[in-house]
Design a protein that fits this description.
With 394 residues, the protein is of the alpha+beta class. The chain has ten helices and 13 strands. The longest helix is centred in the first third of the chain and has 57 residues.
Length: 394
Amino acid sequence: MKPLEQQLAELKEQLAGHFDNAAKEQKSLGAVLEKTQTKITALQAQADAIDVKLAERKAAEVPQPGVLEVLQANDSVNRLMKDRGGRAVVTLEGKHVRELMGRKTTITSSAVGVATTGVLQIDRIAGITAEARQVLTVRDLLYARPTTMQVVDFVKVNAPMAIASPQVEASAKAENAVTFTSVSEKVRTIATWIPASKQILDDFTELMGFINSTLPYYVNLAEEIQLLSGDNTGENLHGLITQAAAFNTGLLSASKGWNKIDIVGRAVQQITGAKELDPTFIVLHPNDWWEMRLTKDGFGRYILGDPQTNARPSLFGLDVVYTTSIANGTFLIGSGNPVASEIRDRMEMQIEFSTEHQDFFTKNLVAVRGEKRVVLVVKRPNSYITGSFTTSPA
């Protein structure tokens, strides 16, 4: 048996060897960790670079490509932006002409603001979210075709012929007569415009598309109101409500009672009783429509049918068009037949750019204008009935 001192010395020697091996392994592990950390740092740098490129690409995306494609293909717009002066004209059709623009002041960099930079990336959705806009539907109810003239005339019967009658054989037949009259309607211009700086149009790519897709909405909204209620004074159109026959409240029965649905039915009766064209639509305020639509009978059933159906709104065979362009409590019933009325377009929607306004050239400002020229020709005014849902029967 070895002496205790020898055993202790051997044990110390073994422990020293283990410590040396552990130190070597720790040193090797540290080198591995250092290499791993270096790789992680490099991968993070690559990921950050990819994020930056993706953010730049996303920020450069242009919203509403249909409008911008029109602008990019327009030589006059490209010349204006290159020469920093002059004017440009863009003609928009279809989907490009049903939007809204609500600003009344010059659009500049300070007006739209500048994003605050920071350490972290932000997820920004490209484009501009528009404000609430009503759907414009009145124009779609009427027949429309172009004209190349400033004034549209038409001839209509003033005093109709008398009805024919049985005649005695070999006798002179009863003579008839008819008189005509000529009616004229003048083409009107509906327009609006907004100023913007060249800098903001260059720097804020979404803004150009927004202006050129939304300015037309203001024009078309004004057109819709004019088609309904234009009073033919000044530069106003001669609207349908202004020319329509007044609803005969005597058709209602005070003793039997009546509601809004009854009024619509009696108005249809009035049109057909006057031998006019059968009506095809009714225009009314959403509040009036939903009051009628939600009317129930004594058993709690909806008078106008199951609300689960997705059928197009109709009433007595008429297409129901509810819009805030007509006053609450007022209705218009009429025909979309071109014999009754038609829209004549002298100039389709156009968007124009110009620096030739006051001192815009020296201020680096651009005037953007949207306009159209149109006239409404109502040939058979009695084919349209207007009235109030709140008027009591005579």
